[in-house]
Amino acid sequence: MSDLLDDNIFENIGEDGEDAVPLGERLLEKGVLSDDQLRIALFEQQNSQDPLGRVLVRLGFLTEATLRDIFSESGGTGVVDLTRISVDPEVLARVPIDVAKRYNVFPVAFHEDRNAIVLAVANPNDLVLADQIRAFLGGGYELEFMVAEESEISRAVDEYYGLELTIEGILREIESGEISTSVSSAGSGGESSSNPIVRLVNAFLNDAVKRGASDIHFEPEESFLRVRYRIDGVLRQIRSLHRSYWGGMAVRLKVMSDMNIAESRLPQDGRISFTLYGRIVDFRVASQPVTHGENFVLRILDQQRNISKINNLGLSDRSMHLLQLILARPSGVIMVTGPTGSGKTTTLYSIIQHMNKESVNIMTLEDPVEYPLPMIRQSNAGESSKMDWAGGIKSMLRQDPDIILVGEVRSTETAELTFRAAMTGHLVLTTLHTNSAIGVLPRLSDMGVLPDIMATNVSGVVAQRLVRKLCSQCKKKAEEITDMQRAVFSEFIDDIENADLHEAVGCASCEFQGYRGRVAIMEVLKFNDELDECVVRRVSAKEVRKVAIETNVYVSMAEEGMGKIFQGQTTLDEIKRVVDLTDILQKVGISSDGHEPTGH
Asked: Which of 113, 176, 295, 461 is the most exposed place for a label (fewest CB within 10 A)?
């Protein structure tokens, strides 16, 4: 293997002033790549002539995030494909065109938190070049490098410098009347960034990712196009554009996501993969015919932003302890419940990443696969594939799995096969649509799962919601405690007056919303012998909850939410928005609007 490595210096990494170490050798040392995997990648690399890092990601041996971490630890570089990139105008403004042309570099991203500019270069080990660029730029910037072909860099410099790349600038350019916004110009032959519709769509994708949106909505009305982002779980209107823009934009979105541009009467699904801010971001695209045209919704699948380690999910110590006990069982069914957009997939991915080892065979069945993960066999099921859920589960059981992830239990047959897999010694993770952890029991019963089977095979349930976090830059300590807060908090703590409560304010950092980012509120229920007995006896949900509390295997969503409030992470208004507190409010005699009930 060493001979192969010596002949392949397509990507070298090393600290400044040290001899560069071949990427493959560093990955072997780290234990994230096997000899066989490296041999396959090197063979593939010789055929494709792509950089080794790009080949490893394409083969599924590594994720972009893993590769980036290795490079970061070693002071090294990543790989960027400049033919599939959406350019941030902010970073272009920081690197003048004369610097870009003189040193043949192209600015990819700017990281404000560490004042770092990411540059695409042909030779990242040229230390003299790095010093010269620092001297020209000034400003005390940190420089980070990504590898790209020389021809790609020159093309990108010529293509993007001098063009309007901001939404506002592109709209002014279109409104000048000198540029065509027709459907034909945005479709065939409209790939060039000189086309303003191409740049306008790219600018919206850029802007949404930069602002931390999870979804982009393009909504045509009779005389205008509404553009909304879902940020921190709340839809926010961003722009209203003239209706004439939408024809070209819709065609451009269809071209990018491999949809049929001639079909406008049926719903379509597609996917876009783009390099934004130095990393690959995927967009799941769905079109829907509506009264005034086609409605488009893009779900942003940003792996760097969404997948967290299990210890970073924000669970309290007690909830984390219960979850670890649930995961310690070698077989059984673990269910994650909650409405659409509550982070169920993120939690499941965090769990299987935590369990992902070379000694374990993990297989998934999803609709569709949202994030490719190394060493995990992932399959599409449902409408996005010719394989249905029941057939997919049967097929996976013949692949000698240890752990199975089923995207969702949707039918009686899927539920039956899921529990059959658990009964044959497999650990099965799945999702179900219920309002609470205890609500899983009647839902499974409705789907035909027998109580005896449930009792012995459900390991645990996690129900979750996402709440907005207070902006750390502008939140302030609450000056007074309202009657509703005092009444609700008295159910959870004794010393209310000294509770560390904060409230939203609003600043430029959070776009004057008072909140920035989200945190999960999780209800954890671990099944034990007492709960199994309750299930067999078919007792009420109220009795199940009582037994769970008495045996210390249950943490309610309200309890978790209050913990986040007392830690200064969120507010009671946010918890009320996603968690049902009506029982508590009724108990303390407060209505949902914060006032005492008046008369009966």
From this structure: 113
pLDDT tens column, 386-413? 788 888 899 999 999 999 999 889 889 9
For residue 422 the two structure tokens come to: 């658990």
Calpha distance 88→165 (Å, rounded): 7
Position with higher pLDDT, 500 vs 564 = 564
- pLDDT higher than threshold 80 for residue 505: yes
Calculate mean pLDDT across residues 541-556: 93
CB 247 within 8 A of CB 266: no
For residue 518, the Cα-to-chain-centroid distance in whole angstroms is: 12
Angle at alpha carbon of residue 320, lines to 61 and 523, rounded to 5°:
105
Give the pLDDT band (50/70/90) at residue 438.
very high
- In the block, which residue shows the tokens 């006032």? 595
Return mean pLDDT, the chain. 83
Residue the block writes with tokens 């949902």:
592
**Angle, CA of 80, 85 and 89, to the nearest 5°:** 115
The two tokens of residue 7 are: 């002949």
At 96, which amino acid appears?
A: P
CA distances 274 to 279, 390, 495, Å, are 8, 33, 51
Nearest to 101 by CA among 142, 135, 133: 133
Asked if 351 and 373 touch (Cβ cutoff 8 Å), the reply is no
Task: State the average pLDDT over residues 545-555.
Answer: 94
Query: What's the longest Cα–Cα distance across the chain?
Result: 86
Query: Which neighbouring-strand residues pair with 476?
Result: 503
268-276 and 85-86 as β-strands: parallel, antiparallel, unpaired? parallel
Edge-first strand listing for the sheet containing 106-111: 78-79, 142-147, 116-121, 106-111
Q: pLDDT higher for 10 or 60?
A: 60
Output the pLDDT for position 367. Answer: 82
d(CA 279, CA 209): 11
CA 70 to chain centre: 21
Q: What are the backbone dihedrals phi and psi of residue 219, each rounded to the nearest 5 degrees, phi first? A: -120, 105
- Cα–Cα distance for residue pair 266/66, rounded to 1 Å: 39
pLDDT above 90 covers a percentage of the chain that reads 37
Model pLDDT, residue 461: 96
- Residue 404: which of 332, 336, 511 has the closest Cα? 332
Cα angle: 458, vertex 523, 581; to 5 degrees: 130
For the record, the structure tokens of 574 come out as 């946010």
In this predicted structure, what is the pLDDT of residue 89?
83
- Buried residues in 247-268 as b, exposed as e (16+ CB within 10 A): bbbbbbbbbbbebebeeeeeeb
Cα–Cα distance for residue pair 304/279, rounded to 1 Å: 8
Tokens 């969120």, residue? 570
Instruction: Give the residue-averaged pLDDT of 449-471.
Output: 93
Closest CA to 584 of 486, 468, 478: 486
Residue type, 280: I
* Residue 305 neighbours by CB under 8 Å, 6+ apart: 212
What does the alpha-carbon distance between residue 449 and residue 411 come to, in Å, rounded to a whole number? 11
Q: Report whether pLDDT(581) > 60.
A: yes
Residue carrying the six token digits 């065509």: 180
